[in-house]
Amino acid sequence: MTSLPARAGRRCHNVINPLHSTVYFSPDFTAELAAIGIEDASAAYFAGRAAAFGRVGPGVVAASFYNFNYESVAKALPAVWDIASPEDVLAARARAADSTLRRLLGDEALSSDAMAEAARLALRATEGCTRHARPLYAAHADLPVPSEPHLAYWHAATLLREHRGDAHLAVLLDAGLDPVEALVSHTATGKGMARKWILGTRGWTQEDWDAATDRLRERGLVDADGELTEAGVTLRKDLELATDRLDAAPYEHLGADGVERLTELATGFVSTALANGAFPAGLLGKG
């Protein structure tokens, strides 16, 4: 393995992950899932991201997604599989990824040498990933790699995202942050999902949010205004550094030159996607 510059893997992940994530905010995804009978937005998301597991119930999803309220998941699963099979959901998700990337990047970018190169590099990085204790990554790693370069790139981005995400959950557990505490402290950094979006999608109430804030305050991690204290800033920094260590393997496998080039290519793609409205306004922040 090759030693990488500090935080090189995180920087690469940070420009790969948004292009993966944009599919779940895309009207194309909503339309494709509705076309196979899943019209509820929450059920569509749970099904779309969990379909690689097969016909799982709410326990698997609440455990592996971490920050969703179990009761809200149970409203959708396992009933959603009586509407559409996991195989049908995966096919609908692939169609949504295709149309979303075409809309946000354009056909020329999808057929470009740059996209083919990005797909090769990202897939090469995934060769360094490991399945143990990484359920969402492992489930997606069992899926076939699409033949089209832009879908292969999206597939690789999914693997890299879930590989880091699974590791991050272990770090959150070690830090003693429950699902709502993790959300509150991340939002307090100003880099996480805004509170109104969390309460609208994760199944938690304002009372849950306030109680979690109180618990963080008792630990000295947030102040009276809900802002991170020095200890809270340090904790969030340490969480990311620990996640970096657990997620180093794919980027070390790719090597410094490959990571630098993949970061460059991914930055270009995600910049175009963001400029074309990949995410709704107000998604990130403290509001």
How does this model look, in words?
The chain is mainly alpha-helical and 287 residues long. It has one domain (8-275). Helices cover 67% and strands 0% of the residues. It has 16 helices and no strands. Helix 8 crosses helix 16 (256-275) and helix 10 crosses helix 14. The relative contact order is 0.16.
**Unreliable sequence segments:** none
Percent in strands: under 5%
Bin the helical content. Answer: 55-70%
Q: Biggest β-sheet: count, sense, barrel?
A: none
CA distance, first residue to last residue:
42 Å
Could you tell me the mean pLDDT?
96
Q: How many domains is the backbone divided into? A: 1
SS summary, helix count: 16
Order of helices and strands: HHHHHHHHHHHHHHHH
Secondary structure layout plus pairing:
Elements: H1 8-21, H2 27-35, H3 41-50, H4 58-65, H5 70-74, H6 86-105, H7 107-110, H8 113-126, H9 135-141, H10 149-175, H11 179-188, H12 195-201, H13 206-218, H14 230-246, H15 249-254, H16 256-275
Short descriptors:
287 residues, single chain
Short summary:
The chain has 287 residues and is an all-alpha fold. The chain contains 16 helices and no strands.
